[in-house]
C-alpha cells in the first residue's frame, strides 16, 4: 500500500543517503511535555505525574495554564519524607490518586506517568496501576513513561498511545475500518472526517479518541494511517493486534495531505474522478495559502536540529512546495519504515543526521550560517545573539499543521522569523 507521491525519475531522493549518527549531549524537553496536548485531546482523562518539583514546574511553565483554569494533570511530588523512607511510596500514590478521583468524578481514565528521578524509576507503576484498577472500578488506570532519559518530548505521546492499544476492543472479523493514529486538534480531525466521508471511506476512527467510551475497535480488518511520525511504539503495538499500516507521507502541506488521503482512497478503491472532485477545492485553497509565503522562503537555506521527529516531513514540505534549500535535517530517531514515502522526496544533497551531539551540530550550523535554523528553546536565544534567525521546534508541535486548511499556517510559521528579520533590518 504505497501512496502516489513518488520520486521523479531523475531524483532518487534520500532513500540510500548515508545517515550521520550522532551520540552525545542532548538538548531536548522530556516526554512529560506531551501531556500538554494529550490532556486537551482526551477529554475525560487525567494525567498524574509521579515525579519531583522540577516536573511540576516544567508542566506549569510548558502548559501556561491560567490561574482560574483547572487542568486535567497534576504531579504527585516525591517529598523528603519519601526519600528518607519515612513513608510508603505506594501508599502515598494510592492516597493521591484517590484524592484526585474524588475531586474529579468525571475522570474515566487515569494515567500514571513516570518521570526520571531515580526514586520514581524504582517504583513499579504497572503494579500500581493494576492495584488502583481494583480499588476504583469505574476508572481505567494505565501507566506509561514520560521520562526524559527514555524519550524525547514527542515520544511521550507514543508511550501514552502504546499503553492504550491493549485496551482497544476487538473489532468483528468481517469489519474493515480506517484508524487515524496520532493526536490531532479537534478542528483538524473534523476536517478529515468530512473528507473521508465524501470519499466514501469508513468507518473512520481516531486514536486517541476524545472520550474513553469512544475507544476504537481494532482487528485484522483495521487499516491505519499515521498522522504523526513519532509513533514507532504505537505502530508496533497496532501491528501486534493485527492492524495493517497504510504507507503514506504525513499530511503536511498541500501535496502531503493529498497523498495521505490518496493512500487511503487507493486501499478503499475510490474512483479517481471522485477523489479529484473531493480534494480539488481544499487543495487549491492550500496551494493559494502557501503561495503567499513562497517569495519569502524560496531559495532560503534551512538547518534542522533534532527535536521532535517532525523534521523530515517538514523538510519535505519546505523543499518541495516552498523551494527552500535543505542543508542538514537532524532528527532524534529516523524510522525508515514510517518515512518510506518521505525520504524519496528529499534532495540527495541534504545531510541527514540521527540522534544528537549538540556541540558538533552547533559547529556545523555556525559553519553553514543558514537563513533559518529550527531548534529547541535552549539553543534559539544563543543562536539569535549570533545573528542567526531561528524557529522554535516546539511551536511546530503545539500548532495544528496537518491537512489542507492548515497548509498556509505551516508556511507562515517558517516565513515569520525571516519577515521579522527583514523588518528589523529596515528599521
Structure, explained:
It is a single chain. The protein is an alpha/beta fold. It folds into 3 domains: 20-26 and 291-426, Rossmann fold (3-Layer(aba) Sandwich), CATH 3.40.50.1980; 31-151, Rossmann fold, CATH 3.40.50.1980; 177-288, Rossmann fold. The chain is built from 17 helices and 14 strands. Helix 11 runs parallel beside helix 17.
What percentage of amino acids are in beta strands?
15-25%
**Class from secondary-structure proportions:** alpha/beta
CATH class of the largest domain: Alpha Beta
Total domains? 3
The coarse overall form would be globular
The main β sheet shows up as: 6 strands, parallel
Radius of gyration: 22 Å
Total strand segments: 14
CATH architecture field of the largest domain: 3-Layer(aba) Sandwich
Separation of the first and last Cα atoms: 53 Å
Number of helices: 17
Q: Trace the largest sheet across and list its strands.
A: 1-12-11-10-13-14
- Regions with little confidence, pLDDT below 50 for 5+ residues: 1-10
User: What name is given to the CATH topology of the largest domain?
Assistant: Rossmann fold
Strand and helix layout:
Blueprint: E1 20-23, H1 35-41, E2 45-51, H2 53-63, E3 73-77, H3 80-83, H4 89-103, E4 109-114, H5 118-121, H6 125-135, E5 140-145, H7 155-164, E6 177-181, H8 186-199, E7 204-207, E8 222-226, H9 232-240, E9 244-245, H10 253-267, H11 272-291, H12 294-297, E10 301-304, H13 311-320, E11 325-331, E12 351-356, H14 358-368, E13 372-375, H15 377-385, E14 390-392, H16 395-398, H17 407-426
Helix pairs in contact: 7-9, 10-11, 11-17
